[in-house]
Amino acid sequence: MQNTAEVGASLVGILVLLFIALISLALFVLWIWMLIHAITNQGLRDTEKVLWVILIILLPFLGPILYFFIGRPKKLASASG
């Protein structure tokens, strides 16, 4: 029979692995989302698309984050009047 410390350590280990798995899944979803967005983005020229796709593929963590904040075209506020 395991003592309480071993059970607690096992539970902490499982929770840490679950947390890492959730973060990894979220980063993978972000990577796929930004890759698809870069490929289908009508606001980018072809050379910009190619460069962003290469950046997203070669830098799987940093590339999608940079594209999210820098590469996506900003929506312009419509001028009324």
Give the structure's gist in a few sentences:
With 81 residues, the chain is mostly helical.
**Percentage of residues in DSSP E strands:** under 5%
Rg over C-alpha atoms, rounded to the nearest angstrom: 20 Å
Assembly classification = single chain
Helix count equals 3
Q: What class would the helix/strand composition place it in? A: mainly alpha
How many beta-strand segments?
Answer: 0
User: Looking at the structure, what is the overall shape?
Assistant: rod-shaped
The biggest beta sheet is recorded as: none
Beginning-to-end CA distance, first to last residue: 78 Å
Uncertain stretches of 5 or more adjacent residues: none
Q: In sequence order, what are the helices and strands, one letter per element? A: HHH
- Summed over residues and divided by their number, the pLDDT gives a mean of 87
Helix content: over 70%
Q: Could you characterize the architecture of this molecule?
A:
The protein has helices at residues 4-40, 46-58, 62-71. By secondary structure, it is mainly α. The chain has a domain at 35-72. It is rod-shaped, with a radius of gyration of 20 Å.
Task: Give the helices and strands, then pairings.
Elements: H1 4-40, H2 46-58, H3 62-71
Helix pairs in contact: 1-2, 1-3, 2-3
Keyphrases for this structure?
single chain; 81 residues; mainly alpha; 3 helices; 0% strand; rod-shaped
